[in-house]
Specification:
Length: 393
């Protein structure tokens, strides 16, 4: 599916049958539940984060370790400490670039070796969109697709909990498969990740540049202390991070409130003509699962569905998002440049400074206090070689 990129989500002419993009199968790996109103690129990035993240992380780790080892081996015989300082951060660049390349292209790499991806359910491809009879059959048997799926992937947006279709899919899946089979991908966090990575990388580059004489001296002449330049750069970053966390906290709170007060009558339906069909599906499902008696009217079944949503969905969503409310994969990607930057420096710091860890903290901007082990001229200026190395020469 990712091989089609954003094309699978675009608006096709009415005479084009997206049903031809699907195939016959007896097993589904992932059922994708999403809101059609999202931008195409955001849907693609959400799926890329889900399906390609592990491969991208593994590839970035291998590339990073290889680069660091090569830098360290070359550093033993290297004489120019300034060159060594900049070369030590080559690992961070290789790691970040490798991760994003594999995240966006891993499905293409697999296709080159004739490896099939996971079989997924995507409504616009697996339910006929032009033949009304086939479309109705697909909608009526949606619960069968859900039962055949190993996992449900929820591409969450603020409209998700307000849609009748998506809540029907989610509430139907959970009682059968359980919360452990649910994965929630908040699109807001994906947007924040894409924005935050270059900002964190810029922070790391700027701090490293301040350790060079030609850059630091003019900055100190202007601001008296180079650390003020770090603060000037970090202040907007901190404001953006604070805004993002507050916005996500509000969005998560609103999501829980929407679920807590969910009512089938207030939910939106893309095509109002489909509402009665969805109601009928919900009532039939509630009877089949014995949530209501076989003779219960549709109204009682729909009320029972309300309670099912309010009890099952919050538990499953909390479990999927984790105790912090933010999946760790997003924090990992955002902090990748900063974490690898520290390791870069530690790898060659023994050749440059007697105390590598404090200097690594300073170099990444984590420690804003002047380090006592260095004089003001030694810290940010031209990097000096250890005395032992000088004496050998």
């Amino acid at each position: 599916m990712l091989l089609l990129g954003t094309q699978v989500f675009r608006d096709y002419p009415e005479d084009f049958d997206t049903f031809t993009l699907s195939d016959v199968t007896h097993k589904l790996h992932v059922f994708i539940s999403y809101n059609w109103a999202m931008p195409q690129w955001l849907k693609f990035m959400a799926l890329a984060f889900h399906f390609n993240h592990k491969a991208a992380s593994a590839a970035a780790t291998v590339a990073y370790i290889t680069t660091i080892l090569l830098v360290m081996l070359h550093a033993e015989a290297h004489e120019d400490s300034d060159d060594l300082f900049f070369r030590s951060h080559l690992g961070t660049g290789v790691c970040v670039v490798t991760y994003w390349l594999f995240l966006l292209c891993w499905h293409d790499v697999k296709a080159l070796f004739w490896r099939r991806g996971k079989r997924v359910f995507l409504d616009r491809c697996c339910i006929h969109q032009t033949d009304e009879e086939l479309k109705q059959q697909g909608i009526e048997n949606l619960d069968i697709f859900l039962q055949l799926s190993d996992q449900m992937l929820v591409v969450y947006s603020e409209l998700y909990t307000k849609k009748l279709w998506t809540m029907y899919e989610l509430a139907t899946f959970l009682p059968k498969r359980g919360p452990n089979r649910l994965a929630v991908l908040p699109t807001f966090l994906i947007r924040c990740t894409i924005l935050a990575v270059p900002m964190v990388a810029l922070h790391c580059i700027w701090v490293q540049m301040l350790l060079v004489d030609d850059v630091q001296q003019p900055v100190e002449d202007l601001l008296l202390d180079s650390r003020l330049a770090i603060l000037l750069l970090d202040l907007p970053l901190l404001l953006v991070v604070t805004w993002a966390f507050r916005r996500w906290a509000k969005e998560e709170k609103q999501m829980r409130e929407n679920v807590r007060t969910f009512h089938y009558g207030d939910s939106h339906c893309l095509k109002e003509a489909d509402r009665s069909m969805v109601y009928s599906n919900i009532a039939r499902y509630m009877r089949e699962t014995k949530a209501v008696s076989a003779e219960a009217p549709d109204e009682d079944a729909l009320v029972a569905f309300n309670e099912l949503v309010r009890t099952e969905v919050p538990i499953a969503v909390t479990k999927s998002l984790g105790g912090w409310g933010i999946p760790l994969r997003y924090l990992f990607v955002i902090l990748m440049p900063m974490m690898t930057n520290i390791v870069d420096y530690l790898a060659v710091a023994p050749l440059l400074y007697p105390e590598p860890l404090p200097m690594a903290m300073y170099a990444t901007g984590w420690e804003l206090q002047r380090l006592e082990v260095f004089s003001p001229k030694e810290t940010p200026g031209k990097l000096k070689k250890p005395e032992a190395e000088i004496s050998r020469q």
